[in-house]
Amino acid sequence: MSAHDERRVNDPLDLKALPGQARPLEDEEELQGQGGPAADPQGRGRDESEKLDQYLLRRYHLHGDRKAREQLITMYLPLVRSLARRYASRGEHFDDLVQVGAIGLIKAIDRFDLSRGVELTTYATPNIVGEIKRYFRDKGWSVRVPRGLQELNIRLNKVIDELVPKLQRSPTISELAEAANATPEEVLEALETSQAYNSVSLQASPNGEGGEEDAGLIDYLGGEEEAYDTMEDRTTLAPGFAKLDKRERYILHLRFFEGLTQSQIAERVGISQMHVSRLIRRSLEKLREEIGELDSPEILRASGDDDR
Amino acid sequence: MTERINLEVPADPSALKTVLMIVAGLSARLDYSLDDLDDVRLAMDMLLNDALEFEELDTIAVEAEVADGWMKLSAGPFRSAELRRRVTVGREDCIDLCLLLRRTMDAVSVEGDDAAYTVVLERRPREASP
Question: What is this model's ipTM?
């Protein structure tokens, strides 16, 4: 190996030096699961990929190297395409979803905290999915809703997110109206039309609604909920609850067993209050459908009520 | 001064939206927070949908009374024993409609006998006033 070659190998930014690192991944098939470039089968081992990621992230965050940032974006675009493809069958253009997902990727790279010791893939995936879901939330209306109301609804989402921490409580309709430059009646109408939003798209898994493999904010929450175990036991016994996915049970648990308000749940889970509201309604509708088909006294017996 | 609004709507899911819109409007007039408003709306939504499921009704009557931040909603007349059981089960660990109503409303009661009863929901705003 010549001195020149040695220099190139020792400089991870010079990707052309290493065949396995030279080519940005072209397709999701090159990814292993959600491993992203870190699982590149083209010659880079996982450790090498992590080192390269860390090197590029350090170059960008510590030295302001924009090329390193661009390199990371290029390397991780296949991951964005992979995640966007999951949502492409829901009426939005694939290219649009890739663009939206790329915004999530860029945010992840920009906000990455070198001191936390997590892999970029781990950090970027929920950011990318979150951005795509936000796009659906803002754009995905299941029925025709007047554009003005759609826009007001989107505005309200932002206003609520701003007002809750500012007021330290849930805002009133009149406060929302003032902040959104609308009348209280318009706010009520907009909130009502938000029911028309196709919220399934926010929570559905790539391979079917409510699957466990979908990357959602709920999957990245830390900490154990003690009472949640009790709830889990009961949900296992109660057929209705068992039909709900993990995040739906978690949100219902927070609301009805822990007694948190929607705003508090929104803050804890990291989604908007309106989204919490929609999730609760949808979960309860599913529960009603399931429980309604069963003999309720039996459900209560199964949940242990007879022992009390 | 107490205001009273009486509604009678067809026992159809699409008609219930009108009731919910009025409930939301009343909550807004009382300056309820968005959380409080959504609680009341959710309670009414679930109660009326359960009523549609367990009752054979042509219409549902709803009466709303509001005064000084307090709201009382009465729905009926119902006859279903199952609906009554769901609303009135008093155990702390009930997991269906009674739990939801208990968490979202201040008071839940049933007035009348099995031949014709009314479910009464009461609520005051829970969060600190603006």
Answer: 0.76
